[in-house]
Design a protein that fits this description.
The protein is of the alpha/beta class. 45% of the residues lie in helices and 13% in strands. The chain has an eight-stranded parallel beta sheet. Helix 4 runs parallel beside helix 6. The longest helix is centred in the N-terminal third of the chain and has 15 residues.
Length: 291
């Protein structure tokens, strides 16, 4: 069962816009050396929505070879087309990933039964286990709690990344959590609150720049040091909030560039953040002690 601190890894680009695999390899080593329990590639933070299927495949294959079993690897294989999600999930499952992250169907949305089948048909067809991804701020729809309940009983669906930011919703689905179906916080600012109702960790943007601290926070809570974890959550809230002053992953890649991590640029429609926001981000990073 997956648990702990899982980084939603950004994707570094070369000046010509291609994927910088050498830099990605350095980031993977940085994450493993600093206590990260798992690496998610091809998520929202990885800009997979602007990458080709061939690039997605190459990133997944490279990550599997570089990690070489040292930590868990999760691949984002979601799509608003269930057929496309199926195709990508089969490819990454065949590469041996530890889990697949499948998103709710954005834009076209779905009724309850369509939402259920969007996930269940893929879970039926692949060997790698599925993590549901609820992020209505991106998709325009939320997975209904009763559908989460049905999906939680599927033998090949092992959890949910809950990124609505809605504690009320998280409370409604918490009753479905058990040893075979876990929750991950998808919001760095409420990791401790979600762990207090049963979440087993976080799939984190913040961990791109502070993997050691993110891992420490999560493991303090898992080890029963709840007050210490809460104090860390409060201490690092300013930098976490700064990473979302513009749409993710713009601020985190800007932060990585400020730290000399060579994240490169973005693919349109993402665009570098404003000078004022960059100055504000740098200020918070200095106050946090990472610049």
């Amino acid at each position: 069962m997956l648990s702990g601190s899982i980084v939603a890894l950004a994707t570094p680009f070369n000046p010509d816009g291609s994927v910088n695999f050498e830099q990605m390899g350095e980031w993977i080593e940085f994450q493993i050396a600093n206590g990260t329990d798992g690496i998610l590639v091809l998520g929202t933070t990885g800009e997979s929505s602007t990458m080709s299927h061939e690039e997605d495949d190459a990133v997944c294959e490279y990550t599997m070879k570089k990690v070489a079993g040292r930590v868990k690897v999760i691949a984002g294989s979601g799509s608003n087309s269930t057929e496309t999600q199926m195709m990508k999930s089969k490819r990454y499952s065949d590469l041996g990933v530890d889990a697949l992250l499948c998103i709710a169907p954005y834009y076209n949305k779905a009724n309850a039964e369509g939402m259920y089948l969007h996930f269940a048909t893929v879970a039926d067809a692949v060997s790698a286990p599925i993590i549901l991804y609820n992020v209505p701020g991106r998709t325009g729809c939320s997975i209904p709690p009763e559908v989460v309940g049905r999906l939680s009983k599927h033998p090949n669906i092992i959890g949910i990344k809950e990124a609505s930011g809605d504690l009320g919703y998280a409370m409604k689905i918490a009753k479905y959590l058990n040893d075979d179906f876990v929750m991950f916080s998808g919001n760095d600012d409420i990791v401790v609150p979600l762990m207090s109702i049963g979440a087993k960790g976080v799939i984190s943007v913040w961990a791109n720049i502070m993997p050691k601290e993110c891992s420490e926070l999560v493991h303090k809570y898992l080890d029963g040091k709840h007050e210490d974890a809460a104090q860390m959550q409060i201490k690092y809230l300013p930098i976490i909030n700064a990473l979302f002053m513009e749409v993710n992953p713009i601020p985190v890649k800007e932060a990585m560039n400020l730290m000399g991590m060579n994240a490169g640029g973005f693919r349109l429609p993402l665009y570098p953040m404003t000078d004022a926001h960059r100055e504000e981000l740098a200020k918070v990073m200095k106050e946090t002690g990472i610049l």
